[in-house]
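## retry 2 of 3
previous attempt timed out at serialization; input unchanged, resubmitting
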Amino acid sequence: MNNRYIDQYDFLEFLKSFPRQKPSFFSSQDQSVSRHTLASMDVISRASIAQAAIAGTCLFLYITRGLFPRAPQWIRPFAKEEVALLSGIRTRRWSFWSFCLAALSTIGLVLAILVAVSPPFNTVRILEIAPWVVALFITIVGRPSKTPKTLLIISITITVCGLISLVAWYNETERVNIIHVASVGVALATIFLILSMPLRDPSLDPTGIANSTFPPTSQLRSPEDNLSLWQFMTVSWLSPLITKGFKDTFNDEDVWVLPYDFQHERLHMLFRDLTGSIIKRLLLANGLDLFIITFLGIIETTANLANPALLQRLLESIEGGPVDTKDAVFYAFAILFVRIVAAQSSVFQTWYSRRAYERSRGELLTAVYAKTLSRKSFGLRTDLGEPPQENGIEPDEETPLLGEIQEPEKSRFGRLLEFLRLRKSKDQNEIGSNADQPATMGKILNLMRNDAYEVAQRFWEFPSLLTKPLQLVFSLVLIWQLLGWPCLFGVAWALVLQLLNGWFIRSQVKVERRRRAATDVRLQATTQFVEAIRPLRWYDWQSKWLGNIMEARAKELHLRVVTSLWSIGVNTSNLAAGALFPVFTFFAVTYIAGRPLPVHVAFPALSLFGLLESSLKELPGLITVLINASLAIERLESFMREPDKEERGYNDIPSEIEFQGASFVWPTNGKLVLEDLTLQFPPGLTLIHGKVGSGKTALLEAILGELDQVKGECTLPNEMVGYCAQSPWLQNMNIRDNILFNFPLDKSRYNEVLDACELLPDLANFPHGDKSNIGENGIGLSGGQKARVALARAVYCQSRFLLLDDPLAALDHSTAQSIVSKLFHGSLLKGRTVILVTHRVDLCLALADQVVEITNGKARVFSSDEYPGEFDALTQKKNVVFDDQAEVITEELANAAIPDKFVSEENRASGGVLARVYWTYIKAGRLTYWFAVIGIFALFRFARIFNYWFLKAWGEAYGSIEAQLSSPSDIADGIFDGLPSPEDDVKPWLVWYTIIGIVLTFFYFLTQCGLTLILYRAAKNLFTRAINQVSSATFRFYDVTPVGRLMNRLTSDIGMLDGGVIQPLQNSAFWSLTWLASMTVIAFTTPIFFIFAIAMTIWFIVIFRWFLPTSQNLRRLEMVTLSPLMSNFGILADGLATIRAFKAQAVFQNRNISATDTFQKMDHFYWSLQSWLQYRYDILSAVSIFVLTLLGLYQGLSSGLIAFVLTSATQFVEATHVLCKTYGQLQMDFVSVERVVELLDLEEEPNGDVKPPPHWPSYQDSITFDSVTIKYAPHLEPSLTNVSFTIPSGATCAVLGRTGSGKSTLALALLATMHPTEGRIRVGNHDISKIDVHTWRQRISFVAQDPVLFPGTIRENLDPMEQHSDEECQEALFRVLGPKWSLSSIVDVGGKNLSQGQRQLIGIGRAILRKSPIIILDEATASIDKKTALAIQDVLLAELRGSTVITIAHRLEAVKDADYFIRLDAGRVIEAGPAGGRK
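## retry succeeded, writing output
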């Protein structure tokens, strides 16, 4: 061996010294014995001293533990379960555990004394008595009943030092001291006993904690709360859950509750009580975990760095021949030990890292939710001329997409300097102004989804902040020790490529910003499309939106490809650094320095190069994630600094609501909305009336404290207020729970409320009565039913004040009259202050104590007698139109009355993803490309193996190195026979090694480019097919599919399809080839290797088969339980004012905490399961490598061949390991692809194949229903049965009927959203079921009660297809909204910056602009004041003269001019004909 390498890794010489000492045959026996006895005694003495020193330290710490000052908060356990302190002094009792420990300590002490006095006597060995004395003392004094960590350290010390002494003594004398063996055995028994002891104090109440041997249940806490150390180390406590998942699919009730110190109820309260910034509070709450995982991370890094050193010693020993076999076995054992230590450290680190991650994430989620509940409500209200905040995101803010955090606008280095406080920001004022901008609901969702995750992820990866730089430094040190100065050539090459990478990354970041912006545009277009899919298809506007979506999608995919190319540049550069690093280094070693390159240097050097390369690659990423985390913290801090809603001090003295010269502004823009209010609201009924947009709703918000007061005085209630919003906000639960709203059930009061709100007839029609679930946002109820459920909720509560925002607007005249009579004139409102906003003053005027008219933000007060009398005259005039107009109840066209008919559960898949899903994705990427990529992959893998084989041949080509025995693999050595000996000429070897590195890099580059092409084609193909399929699906699909679910598939699942699934697919292909290649190498080396490898693979698969079903169950449950957590944040967008009015913040906070617990427990047990698998794989891998090493030694293979086989075996083990994990990840990620593929199989709407004449329908075409029967679905009862009537051309037809009578179905049938199962619907002479549906919908118009508006200008909302001139659009706008509005006025998302009445006016403007021959109006003026409504009716009569107008309406003025009517009941026509005879 070359002298240059003799002094490397000196730190191993002590461990190596005692097994290498052997008697010499060339020296006298006495001299040999004397010399080796001294060496052995030296080892034994050191071991004895070490035992005494460690025992003394433990004793000192044990005795003085109470003298130390209390540790700071960050190092103390957070949310720990504490023992209840009893009165008096708590005495420690003897338990089974303490008695056993005392017995073992006594036996150990006796044996230690016998060992110390046994010949040959050595004074130092008396020190071996010390640890047993200390152990006995601690046992007697402490009487431990839970795991005594001090005794565990002492027992491990005795065992390790005792084994070292025994080996040293046996090597010297070849005899064994039986008493010493017994002493070590007692220490081992003590360790096993301690491992079996509980970690939890037995004095704590064990009730409610699951037993790790019983089936899991959600009624009990996780077994983690009461484990032994052995169960904790091996993760065996998960066995019941694994068994359950292996046998069957389990549900939420089959999963334990989170452990005590993971539960968010107490975490939230404790975190709330901490003071300081968010990052300070997080560090205080999780500091102990960060300290522990950093320590464990250092242990794992040390183990990783020790492996190359031990491998070098192993190969050196093998080169020494049979005489050094014992040394080789020792180093094989040492490698096994280091791997096991690393595996065990990984288990502990994963658990504590997960605790820090889960708790910090939960603390942020609950803190953000609590802040959202308490902060000042800013809403989305802007003026028409102001730029909107789209989707809740400020215009200048880039949206983080799919878990990513937005890139900083400044350079990363500049951001890092700012984060480290090394440089001040250039524009502090600008930052301050941005920070002052209130967070919209969209931004709050981003804080919850992205920023909280970003910060928590850094807590999980916290050790890398220290271990990655340490690994870089120590890798360099070890490479320097191994190779000396020549390693600088390789380091220089790596640094050059990292500088190139910096340029690549900067370019990638620029493109990535544009890509994210493009994705935002596509997401926004898709969101608008999904939310407005019904009206878009009613008007047949979907093609325009599809064009916008596909244009945005094309730009997004183009930029994604460009981003991928820059990423390929970064990855290829990193691979080139790894592939050519050894080329430059070995060039300097062999050519410049003139040294040989033996096997025991080359292969350890490769391992160290790999560690150094990974460190160099990870450091830039580490800096980036730190910057991202700092940005996330800044955003969270900015949000938490926002002002809270002012809560006035509670006053027990009842007071009235009163304003004295008060003025209020919107919190959003500070614009004055209410001016100089001088009002008093005494008990009784106050009516609020005014024109559209005058400030009626703002007055109620001012009473609730949601507006900013800028002037005057006011007395507002600081108690629960019954509030019914204009747009009813309902929860996704049953009707009863919505009405009770967390209040206890008072059966008589509840029934009285149902009767007063006219809900009893509706509930009688529901299959499950008031237990019927109303679905997402009340999707299962009609508009009138939603309004009455929200009204019932407000009335049921026992509040003194009721604020009712136009609940009568959506009700028919009869129902509204009945509610006024029963509710406002009944006992339920007696003695309560009721403030009712309404346009139907005529119904309530007789009961009102006062009337307030709002005009442009100012109020005028009338008594009911003083109020202008035109309302009475108006009422009389309209009552003559239909004297038995009674009992008409509104239905929203988009929904139906029976909830169960329109709500379906989202199925949770079970088992693995079907092969058809994989095949669909593969075909979408094109088979030719897949075959090409796999072929290049195979070449890349072959080049990698050839690289190792070439290095082995190079190392063995030196004349001083010869293989001990021939082997079958010698045949392959002939490949390099043509090369000269490297001792004579090393240049050819360097040239070939360089070529191999370049070929590796080239193949990798081609592979990545091929995968990018596949990703592009598959993403484009599947998205196009999915969105087209959704746009042409039957309307029944929209009925049973909530918007949120469809949005999730077209955004999150498409996002996964765009980039997430390709990585596990790539890994599967790469590691499959690695596994195959490694298996081939092992098989060719020796058959016994092959047999062992097969057995090991089977073992891996058996373990994995136990793991996979439970893993899939937990992952799917996690995806399901995330939805309620997201919904809890989502409901605050519309329901915050209602929640705060009812003083229900604590209830919703608790609900959010419960949802967080449920979601996090799935995540917690999923990662615990990963730890279970990782531990078993790591142990199996360590044992496998150890056995393969022994097999190689037994076969007598050369050091080069063993190094090559060990490298292949390591890759084989890693490939088997990674393949199992990748398969599981692939199954999880492909769930998203599965959900997208499900969209491809949607049933399409029948389009019709008859092209009608250009001028059909004409103004002379009548509408005829001929014995029509219609069902929503084949398995449902008919909604219309044998309906026959004819609406004359040009007629104005009123459609009347009670709830469920079929009015909505009739309108849907006219829009051809469903076709008759019997009979025909004719317009003129054409059956509309056979007409091309797109042509039909383009030629008629429909105006819904709640028109859907799109973000943009009024021009774009009136005429999205740009079929009319600006002059025509301006004229239509002028007719409905007056001269103050312009076509360029801005409309926010969903028209949220407009009042409900203004939105309805724009919807009417669309119909006026289109002037279709047939027009359907569904409660089109319900939210408009009567004066405006009458004017609009006149406009409609004038503009739509000649058109056939079908009106579903409940206010009499809306149908006063009807000349034809149809009355429906239970799906049948009971009366139809001209209205003249009914007047």
